[in-house]
Design brief:
Helix content is 52%, strand content 4%. By secondary structure, it is mainly alpha-helical. It has a single domain, classed as Recoverin, domain 1 (Orthogonal Bundle). α1 packs across α2. The chain is elongated and about 55 Å long.
Length: 91
């Protein structure tokens, strides 16, 4: 478990201009515990890179409260569109 002074130091490092954050720094940056961070990342489609770091831009998406990428893609799908189908205009 992290001690208070360790959290303060890590928060200072996390809030600087690092483009990628370790999981512990990401928890401090987003103010979420490990489980909540994992759930939010899953909801927003955010994954760690090959080295095990989170992208700061991806974490900003969680903090902004904007719709997730997955929601955007689902909303972009038009079900039953008439592309290439019969023209249904009345005469």
């Amino acid at each position: 478990m992290l001690k208070n002074y360790d959290k303060a130091i890590m928060k200072g490092v996390a809030l600087c201009i690092k483009p990628y954050l370790k999981p512990e720094e990401a928890m401090i940056y987003t103010n979420l515990e490990r489980t909540r961070l994992a759930l939010k990342c899953q909801e927003y489609g955010i994954f760690k890179n090959a080295n095990g770091y989170y992208s700061r831009e991806d974490l900003d998406l969680i903090l902004s409260g904007a719709p997730s990428r997955l929601e955007d893609k689902v909303n972009a799908i038009v079900i039953g569109s008439s592309k290439g189908g019969r023209n249904r205009t009345s005469k």
